[in-house]
Write a sequence for this structure.
């Protein structure tokens, strides 16, 4: 009887360890998702700034073109 209880406890320990490991893994995955989202936001903001600069440059090009005609 004791042997069965010990085996049962051993099996449950394996499952508990697996559960803890999976919860830890999910935490790491969530942290990476959040880091990726932050990077996406930063890149989107940078692209918006670059696009605005490009539009400004195109306006300057048109103005310069008028002077050199």
């Amino acid at each position: 009887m004791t042997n069965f209880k010990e085996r049962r406890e051993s099996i449950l320990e394996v499952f508990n360890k697996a559960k803890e490991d999976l919860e830890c893994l999910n935490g790491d995955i969530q942290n990476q998702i959040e880091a990726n989202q932050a990077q996406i936001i930063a890149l989107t903001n940078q692209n918006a700034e670059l696009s605005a600069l490009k539009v400004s440059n195109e306006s300057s090009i048109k103005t310069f073109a008028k002077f050199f005609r």
About this structure: The chain has a mean pLDDT of 95.
